[in-house]
């Protein structure tokens, strides 16, 4: 994540620390950089550093900080003599990312419910209580690959699909085309979507308000990349 520009450090000068960075000082550092965020927590890492969680735009991100609270950064490269320190940082990042994904996924499922009329629902080949939720953009190569895997997905689970326009004007047009031509017939909808997922295909010009609203609703949950998949 690149929320705080200029605060990423590749190497550190280690100093002696005596506890977690003060949240008030950390907050001042955010304010000094005109960042509208909040310090959620700060815990001591040792060697003059703390592990900090910053919330910006309703999303939480992990950072490291000096114990005086005057520097906040992300450890893209961390070299330490004590390997347990590296392990603690890795676990810190992993736990927060997993927690954040659970939060985003819960909010996204609410969007699937609220946008039921715009959800492409595909039934499994055999009755199944499992449902896979997918957010996809027609112009995303990984999404195209994921859609090509739909038949395999349907062998063991139902699939609910929301199409968004994260990747520009043509993506929005394709999403609008898909919503307009949605029939509710599984075979027809799969065939129609397959054409839109074809590389170099173009969406026809039309009203994009519904597609824009759907894309914004998904973005508001915190989803920032596609395909976003929630598996049972």
Q: What does this protein look like?
A:
The protein is of the alpha+beta class. It has helices at residues 23-32, 83-114, 141-148, 150-153, 169-181, 186-197, 209-219; strands spanning 37-46, 49-56, 59-66, 72-73, 120-122, 131-136, 158-163, 228-230. It has a four-stranded antiparallel beta sheet, with helices on both faces. It folds into two domains: 16-81, Nuclear Transport Factor 2, Chain: A, CATH 3.10.450; 112-230, Glutaredoxin, CATH 3.40.30. Mean pLDDT is 89; it is low at 1-18.
List the helices and strands and how they pair.
Elements: H1 23-32, E1 37-46, E2 49-56, E3 59-66, E4 72-73, H2 83-114, E5 120-122, E6 131-136, H3 141-148, H4 150-153, E7 158-163, H5 169-181, H6 186-197, H7 209-219, E8 228-230
Parallel strand pairs: 6-7
Antiparallel strand pairs: 1-2, 2-3, 3-4, 5-7, 6-8
Offer a concise description of the structure.
By secondary structure, this protein is α+β, with helices and mostly antiparallel strands. The protein contains 7 helices and 8 strands; from the N terminus they run H-E-E-E-E-H-E-E-H-H-E-H-H-H-E.
How far the N terminus sits from the C terminus, by CA atoms, comes to: 27 Å
Average pLDDT figure: 89
- Give me the secondary-structure category: alpha+beta
List the total number of helices: 7
Fourth-level CATH superfamily of the largest domain: Glutaredoxin
- Write the CATH fold name of the largest domain: Glutaredoxin
What are its keywords?
single chain, 232 residues, alpha+beta, Nuclear Transport Factor 2, Chain: A, Glutaredoxin, 2 domains, 4-stranded antiparallel β-sheet, 39% helix, disordered N terminus
């Amino acid at each position: 994540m690149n929320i705080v520009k200029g605060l990423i450090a590749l190497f550190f000068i280690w100093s002696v620390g005596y506890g977690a960075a003060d949240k008030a000082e950390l907050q001042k550092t955010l304010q000094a950089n005109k960042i509208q965020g909040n310090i959620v927590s700060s815990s001591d890492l040792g060697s003059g550093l703390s592990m900090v969680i910053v919330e910006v735009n309703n999303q939480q991100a992990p950072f490291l900080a000096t114990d005086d609270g005057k520097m906040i950064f992300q450890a893209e490269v961390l070299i330490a003599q004590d390997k347990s320190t590296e392990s603690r940082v890795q676990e810190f990042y992993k736990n927060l990312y997993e927690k954040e994904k659970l939060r985003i996924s819960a909010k996204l499922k609410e969007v699937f419910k609220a946008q039921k009329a715009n959800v492409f629902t595909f039934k499994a080949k055999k009755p199944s209580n499992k449902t896979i939720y997918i957010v996809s953009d027609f112009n995303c190569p990984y999404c195209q690959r994921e859609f090509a895997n739909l038949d395999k997905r349907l062998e063991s689970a139902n699939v609910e699909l929301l199409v968004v326009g994260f990747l520009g004007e043509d993506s929005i047009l394709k999403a609008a085309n898909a919503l307009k031509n949605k029939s509710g017939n599984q075979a027809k909808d799969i065939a129609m979507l397959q054409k839109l997922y074809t590389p170099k295909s173009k969406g026809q010009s039309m009203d994009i308000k519904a597609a824009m609203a759907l894309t914004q609703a998904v973005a508001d949950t915190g989803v920032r990349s596609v395909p976003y998949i929630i598996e049972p």
